[in-house]
Amino acid sequence: MKQQIDNNKAFERHLSDWHIEELLIDSPPGGRGVQSADAAGWASNGSLRHLHGCDLCRSRMEQLGEVLSLYRQAAVYESEHALRAAPTRAANATSSLPLQRRHGLSWILAGWALALMLLVAAALPAYLAHRERDRRQLADAARNRLLMEQARDNLLLQQVDQEVTESVPYPLESLTHLVVASGSKDE
Amino acid sequence: MEDAVGCETISAIRTETPSGLADMDELIRVYRPRVFRYAMLSLRDRDLAETVTQDCFLNAFRARDRYRGECSISTWLIKIASNLIRDHLRRRGFQFWRSASVSSIDVAAVGDRLASREISAEARLLLQAKLGQVWKIVDSLSLKQRTVFLLRYVEEMEVAEIAEATGLNSNTVKSHLHRALAAIRAGMNEGGA
Questions:
Q1: What residues of chain A have any CB closer than 8 angstroms to a CB in chain B?
Q2: How many C-beta atoms surround the C-beta of residue B27 within 10 A?
Q3: Is 0.90 exceeded by the ipTM?
């Protein structure tokens, strides 16, 4: 008897928004109405019992259910429409990459190419100047080496001359005169 | 407008086994619309959604040996897609200039196609207004709320499946769903729908 009274009291109160949301969350896929909730076997559910007897709550639930259903229909329609357009784009594509990614990639590549060209343009004069300086340094070094070798040769010749013209001991002086005399005689 | 893709997906789920991953062509044929739809609605960018869909199947192919059949293939793919979407959104957070390229739905065109020919011009306008409003509200939801909302009310997944796919627990999923529905209800009431 007490339970009957409680049930009647519960029936007098309308379902809260939370209860309606709860019914929509738990309703089986494909249906957002009272029938679908029935199909889920909620005969024992108090909210559902109320829903059967209360036009206002049923209408509130169905209104929200309709909005959800409308959204789903639009979403499905829109995605199918986009998907139908997708193979055309894929057919035109030269690679397996999607359009946007390829465009992004080509911009990145172009950016890198431009940066590389600027780098080369900036570095080339410096490189050429550096090469010219190296070449001059090598030529200078070679000239210096040649001069040093010449100086060394001259020094050696002088040394030899000095050694050749060194005075001979007295007893041998007559022989040197003799060599000079015989040399002049041969001439 | 119950779509053929949805029916096809449901019939495919019934026969899901780990060996179902062997035929990648069939897998892509059956699940591509679903993964693409989820990615497109989450990212609100068709080109990016295509990229995510491709990457999702590529990752699934690479990881096919690790699939043990503990959840449905559909849930498994949605899980992979969710991770990819999260990564993309995180990366896109820094690319504020790309927001201009994000494509949005042409509510009028969709509303026109959804409306039956018999309805009056006034009813058609009302439908378009309602659709525009709900679309805007869903777009304004937080990432987690939008994700669970899309999985529940567009992909029609169960709360437990959503929990599996998103890595959240069932109570958290339900709590996000409550908040998303509350936002939609409040937004629609504000708009007078």
A1: 17-18, 21-22, 24-26, 29-30, 63-64, 67-68, 70-80, 82-83, 85-86, 89, 96, 98-101
A2: 19
A3: no
CB B75 within 8 A of CB B164: yes
Q: Is the pLDDT of residue A5 over 70?
A: no
B65-76 confidence digits (pLDDT tens): 888 777 888 899
pLDDT of A79 reads 86
DSSP string, A52-95: HH-HHHHHHHHHHHHHHHHHHHHHHHHHHHHHHHHHHHHHH-SS
- Dihedral sign for Cα A110, A112, A113, A119, please: positive
The answer to whether A71 contacts B40, with C-beta atoms less than 8 Å apart, is no
**Is B127 an interface residue toward A (CB < 8 Å)?**
yes
Distance from CA of B110 to the nearest CA of A (A): 6
Mean pLDDT of A24-41: 62
Query: What pLDDT sits at residue A29?
Result: 64
Which residues on B lie below 8 Å from A68 (Cβ)? 153, 184
Full-model pTM: 0.62
